[in-house]
Write a structure and sequence with these properties.
The chain is of the alpha/beta class. It contains seven helices and 36 strands. It has a 19-stranded mixed β-sheet. A 13-stranded parallel β-sheet has the order 12-14-16-18-20-22-24-26-28-30-32-34-36. It has a four-stranded parallel β-sheet with strand order 3-5-7-9, with no helix packed on it. A hairpin with a 5-residue loop joins strand 1 and strand 2. The N and C termini lie far apart (about 115 Å).
């Protein structure tokens, strides 16, 4: 019996010993972490040290039950931006948007084995990103964005296998490619490296990141072809690889990205045709391929992208006619097909897109007339047919568009009078009808259009007394009515156009002198 009691007593003492040893060990490790932070703080510029004034090392007053709940240290409760786990180890460090200035040279990555969250974004930190960052083996969230780090992304970043978010955008990383080791981060859901000076090709290993939902590599100097392995990113929602120097064709494997909502590949040097397989991306809402060297026709399959709100294909060398299937995109608000070599007539089906706000078909070789179905596009704010071979008259209903602020009809073969109610809503700011075959009087609505900033009517056969058909435009910057059939005397109304920069009236039958106020 006595022996049994002795065994129980020994067991109790052993348990207490283990508990005390654990707590002392935790306290020792936690103090080491705090001291490591203090060393880094001391390396920062003086103003930054004052921002972290709460960082001072002293133990919290112990209580009678401190043994029971663990030895708590001040940095876990009192230090700004520092959070600890239950064991007293630092697991979260959030120092974003503090204006910190300094480097990470004295930041001891080895001292934080339990750190899971590190946010140093939106500061003024500079220098290189140390390879020692690979020692943060528990890290799930890393944000070094919007600082002034330079040099390369260390390959050791590939050791952070628990990482879910990696943001290093808006820095000055240069003379460096994206490490292929990033492809080892199998838990990664967000990767943002945009707005740096990264060079080289996109690693094919990024195709291994099966959990990735957001990938932003835009505004760098990346080159080479887009790896087809990126088609394996089946959970990708948004892809931004625009504004680089990427070449080659668009991989057909992108057709497997069925969850993709945003696909931005504009401002590269991509060539070849637009794969018809991209019509399978039924979740797509934003699709921009402008400013490339893409050729061939616009695939009719794009008419299957029923959720699309933005389609930008401008500034390529696309040819052929505009597919009538584009008229199926009834959620479209912005359609820009300008600066290509598209031909044929404008499909009447475009008139089905009654949510359109911006429509730009300028700088093509389209012919025929504007379809009557365009009367349905009453939400338009911007409409441009500039520099095509279009003819016929302008549908009167366009004058009823109450939100229309920019209307460009210049350099075509349009004829007839202008819509009588143009600018009836008083929203029109830029109106260009120059170099056509318009004739007849100026609509009364235009006389009262005080919202006008630029009015270009040169090279037509408009008629009327200049003192009667034009009003006062307080915001007007450009007024060009040259080479028409206007007559009469220059009026004092022009003097009231205080912002006028350019005035052109040559090639008419206008008399009188230019008011002194306009000459100065």
């Amino acid at each position: 019996m006595a022996f049994s009691s002795l065994n129980k007593l020994s067991s109790v003492f052993f348990s207490l010993f283990v508990l005390l040893h654990f707590q002392l060990n935790v306290a020792f490790n936690s103090t080491q972490e705090a001291q490591a932070l203090l060393k880094w703080k001391a390396s920062l510029q003086t103003q930054s040290q004052s921002i972290l004034s709460s960082w001072t090392l002293y133990p919290v007053n112990a209580t009678n039950n401190s043994t029971q709940h663990g030895i708590k240290l001040a940095h876990c409760t009192n230090w700004f931006g520092v959070s600890c786990d239950r064991a007293g180890s630092i697991h979260r460090l959030n120092l974003s948007v503090l204006g910190l200035k300094g480097t990470l040279d004295r930041f001891s990555f080895l001292s934080f084995p339990h750190l899971a969250y590190l946010d140093l974004s939106i500061n003024e930190l500079f220098g290189v990103i140390s390879s020692q960052i690979g020692n943060l083996s528990k890290l799930k969230y890393l944000d070094l964005s919007t600082n002034q780090f330079f040099g390369k992304i260390p390959t050791e970043i590939g050791l952070l296998t628990h990482l879910e978010t990696l943001h290093v955008f808006e820095n000055q990383l240069n003379a460096s490619s994206i490490p292929k080791e990033i492809g080892q981060l199998n838990s990664l859901s967000e990767l943002a490296l945009y707005s740096n000076h990264l060079e080289g090709s996109i690693p094919a290993s990024l195709g291994n990141l099966s959990k990735l939902s957001w990938l932003a590599l835009y505004n760098n100097s990346l080159s080479g072809v887009i790896p087809p392995e990126m088609g394996n990113l089946s959970n990708l929602l948004e892809l931004y690889i625009d504004t680089n120097n990427l070449t080659g064709s668009i991989p057909t494997s992108f057709s497997k990205l069925r969850k993709l909502t945003v696909l931005y590949m504009f401002s590269n040097q991509l060539s070849g045709s637009i794969p018809q397989e991209l019509g399978n991306l039924e979740s797509l809402t934003n699709f921009s391929l402008h400013n490339n060297s893409l050729s061939g026709s616009i695939p009719a399959s794009l008419g299957g992208l029923k959720n699309l709100s933005i389609l930008h294909l401008y500034s390529n060398t696309l040819s052929g006619s505009i597919p009538i299937e584009i008229g199926n995109l009834n959620k479209l608000i912005d359609l820009d097909l300008s600066r290509n070599i598209l031909n044929g007539s404008i499909p009447i089906e475009i008139g089905n897109l009654n949510k359109l706000i911006d429509l730009d078909l300028s700088r093509n070789i389209l012919n025929g007339s504007i379809p009557d179905s365009f009367k349905n596009l009453s939400e338009l704010e911007f409409l441009s047919f500039y520099k095509n071979n279009l003819s016929g008259t302008i549908p009167q209903e366009i004058g009823n568009f109450t939100n229309l602020s920019r209307l460009h009809l210049d350099t075509n073969h349009f004829t007839g009078p202008l819509p009588h109610n143009i600018c009836a809503s008083g929203s029109l700011e830029r109106f260009s009808v120059s170099d056509n075959n318009f004739f007849g009087p100026i609509p009364k609505g235009l006389r009262n259009c005080t919202s006008l900033r630029r009015l270009s009517m040169q090279g037509n056969q408009f008629v009327g007394n200049i003192s009667e058909v034009f009003g006062t435009y307080p915001n007007l910057e450009l007024f060009d009515i040259s080479h028409n059939e206007f007559y009469g005397e220059i009026t004092s109304n022009l003097v009231k156009c205080s912002n006028l920069i350019s005035l052109k009236m040559a090639g008419n039958n206008i008399g009188g002198s230019i008011p002194f106020e306009l000459e100065t």
